[in-house]
Amino acid sequence: MRGPAYDLLLVAHVAVALLGFGAIAVAGLAASSSRRSAHPSADAATRRFFKHGRDWPGRTILLVPVLGIALLYGGDRSDVGAAWPWISLGIWVVATGIASGVCWPAERAAQETLERLIAAPANESASLVAEFRASCRRMELAAGAISVCFVAAVAMMIIQP
Description:
Order of helices and strands: HHHHHH
Helix content: over 70%
Strand content: under 5%
Shape: elongated
Structural class: mainly alpha
Radius of gyration: 19 Å
């Protein structure tokens, strides 16, 4: 199936990967910036980014292997027995494990802490700011590790050793 349908599937695979991993990288940058803010509850960008809700663009990384396996088995299947697609899948498993186990829970914790911080009296805010910054730090580190996994997976797919 190396025709237009395969090409469209390849574009979808790449677009979903870029959207998902890009959203996670941006979340890490936002967490880094928010962590360094002197008054996170007063910072408009922090309040906008950490409004309560899920990171749906980041969760598109969950579609990456579905499209990748469709590409693998939908084409001429010559790469099914090669190591590189399965190593890339393993890297993806690590990345989504970090996202699911560290990054997204830290993002939820930061959202909840920021909500409490906005409503808290000034004398209680110091501990909440520390808690918010700790959540942002976890998110920042996780996003960095996920970005390294993304680069490694892309390199694996380009080089195809």
